[in-house]
Amino acid sequence: MRRATKTQTDMTLGKYLGALRANSGFTLRQVEEATEREVSNAYLSQLENDKISKPSPNILYTLAALYGAEYDRLMELAGYISSSKRTNDSTRHGRIATFSEFNLTPDEEAEMIDYLKFIRQRRTHNDKVG
């Protein structure tokens, strides 16, 4: 059985939200506009920098909808709910379906999101050039 390591436990809501926003290609101001000012760019910046760790469920719902993210995951990272399943070496993680067999940690999941963003940016750039 794997033991929890620091990298498995240090994923914060702020880091996760920052990765989701980056993957979506939004700036802080664009999030503010897209949420019709429900989430101000200053508030989102404080969230992403872990100055605010427990926003209201309404804010989390709005961001989950905008980013196409799992609301339950945001609620879990904010401490409102606990994980409904515990993973071990014989279970699948499933947050990023293609890589679910690797039981990704939250940090690894965020890195995969960042890598996906890189690939999408490269594809967009190649489409414009070609």
Category from helices, strands and their pairing: mainly alpha
- Fraction of helical residues: 55-70%
CATH architecture grouping:
Orthogonal Bundle
Question: For this structure, what is the CATH homologous superfamily?
Answer: lambda repressor-like DNA-binding domains
> How confident overall, as mean pLDDT?
79
CATH fold-type name? 434 Repressor (Amino-terminal Domain)
> How many beta-strand runs?
0
Largest sheet: none
Radius of gyration: 16 Å
> How many H/I helical runs?
7
CATH class: Mainly Alpha
> Oligomeric status of the shown chains?
single chain
Low-confidence stretches: 1-8, 86-96
Blueprint (SSEs and pairs):
Elements: H1 6-9, H2 13-24, H3 28-34, H4 41-48, H5 57-67, H6 71-77, H7 106-129
Helix pairs in contact: 2-7, 3-4
Give a description of the structure.
The chain is mainly alpha-helical and 130 residues long. It has a single domain, classed as 434 Repressor (Amino-terminal Domain), CATH 1.10.260.40. The chain has helices spanning 6-9, 13-24, 28-34, 41-48, 57-67, 71-77, 106-129. Helix 2 runs parallel beside helix 7 (106-129). Residues 1-8 and 86-96 have low confidence and may be disordered.
Quickly list its features.
single chain; 130 residues; mainly alpha; 434 Repressor (Amino-terminal Domain); globular; disordered N terminus
Summarize the structure.
The protein has helices at residues 6-9, 13-24, 28-34, 41-48, 57-67, 71-77, 106-129. It is mainly alpha-helical and 130 residues long.
